[in-house]
Design brief:
single chain; 402 residues; 17 helices; six-stranded parallel β-sheet
Amino acid sequence: MKKIGFVIPWYADDIPGGAEMELREVTAHLHSAGVTLEILTTCVKEFGADWSVNFYNEGEDRSACGIVIRRFKVRKRDTKAFDAVNAKLMGGRNISVSEEDVFLREMVNSPDLYSYIEEHKDEYSLFVHIPYMFGTTYNGVRVCPEKSALIPCFHDEAYAYLTRFRELYPKTAGMIFNARPEAELAEKIFGFSQSGTETIVMGIGMDTDITANPDDFRRKFNIDKPFILYAGRKDKGKNVHTLVKYFSEYISRRDTELCLVLIGGGNIDLPQELVKSRRIIDLGFVDKQDKYNAQGAAEFLCQPSKNESFSLVIMESWLCGRPVLVHEACPVTRNFASESNGGLYFGSYFEFEGCTDYLLSHADTASAMGQNGRKYVLENFDWDVIVQKYISFFSKLTGEQI
């Protein structure tokens, strides 16, 4: 097999973000397994930077693990025109096809990158683009859709329904999904089964060799009461305020010492009387081992977000042997909990109350759920499993052996 080109709007070894981290991990593990690949990207620093500014030098670079990175200059964009259309999409308003063209033209784009793909496409077996909504993906795929696959990271959002995407993406060779509900959403919108595009529910690889020491966590942070754990960014987009509200209501209705422990960045308003009494304990950022120890010490992890394409913290909680409680409005996390039999889900306060009561009063069942989840992660998301699935899928798309 010739080399595989992974295309992403920006790339660096330390850029935060779900798609960026996913690509970094996937390419590093495939590279380690002997797959010949390169990363094709722009000179833009990261998502939060100005998409018209070339932060990195153009040309060839290397990642920390030795992967070739080819960087291409971006062209200047009309930010005001883009923002006007994007505001409509974010507000849930319909836009015309001509406005879609403005959106796709005036976001992050690199004509030099597209020219490179056109001129060198015979040197590559496949181009893998991530994620679906950016100019580098749409315009890169247009060059040779028959040699393109996507790790799209679809959500049920206005962008996914753009006419231009629905015209182009069914012409691609393959789609790689992070979870079954994402695949179901994509089929509903794009009809990949009718277009002949090959699809796979891949998932995201996990470093499964992690251990938890609950006693170390309790000693280090002086927490000797039972607690629910939230691990992740603390903001309204993650629905953490609902968890705080429901927890506050729960302890007002129950004779319990139960606490809520929050770890991760961000800020939300917390009831100060519960913070002062250490019923809600916000630890902020902690290191990885402290996070694993917290996950092992918790009664359960609560992931209240309604919009996840995967959830590493759920997988980590299962690897640490503890069950999870997720929001029923998130198809991905609800599917994980149901498919693994590793947790429960809630949609209202009284469902949260019932689930919490059940997990606290059925310790053996809660532990069994945690073990079910652990088995599910090891069988589906261990890196050795994921790497072999990628290799098999790429061979299927290209007709070549890696």
